[in-house]
Amino acid sequence: MEYSFRVHWGDTDAAGIVFYPNFYKWMDEATHHFFASLGRSTWKLFQEERIGMPIVEAKCVFHAPLFFEDQVCVKSAVAELREKSFRIHHQFFRGGQLVAEGYEVRVWTTFAGDRPKAAPLPAELREKMKREGAMIRYKEGS
After folding, report:
1. So where does this one cross the membrane (predicted)?
2. What gap in Å lies between CA 30 and CA 15, rounded to an integer?
3. Segments forming the whole domain that contains residue 101
4. Reduced to 3 DSSP states, what percent helix, strand and coil does the chain have, rounded to the nearest 5?
5. Tally of structural domains, the chain
6. pLDDT above 90 covers what percent of the chain?
7. pLDDT for res 130
8. CATH number at residue 125
9. Quick one: pLDDT at residue 138?
10. What is the pLDDT of residue 133?
11. DSSP state of 17
12. What is the C-alpha separation between 30 and 26, in angstroms, rounded?
């Protein structure tokens, strides 16, 4: 799945280079875009089903800087799928150049009770995630 945007001035430091926390913000945005493309708006999931996907781990490795007004394409795919969690991998490209890559581990969580609780990913969603987000490194776990 692809998510594209242009770097804004507010995303950069005084030298016009992207400030690194923005890559984590963009990974989050790309994940929300990924789920919307599967027909599962994360906002509607929370509002209608009290389901969220908290991040329990995230990492990003930087290969080259991005600058103000660069056009960026984030390619996202599920790299690992478990019963209650998944790892989604993101690659950031400027043109054909890989400038950064990272991942998020998220847990399918119900907020319907007194406190948040991990819950199994629905079977139909798991199948969509496999179909739409498979990567070479994809693996299924328990």
Report:
1. none
2. 26
3. 2-140
4. 25, 40, 30
5. 1
6. 84
7. 84
8. 3.10.129.10
9. 42
10. 59
11. B
12. 6
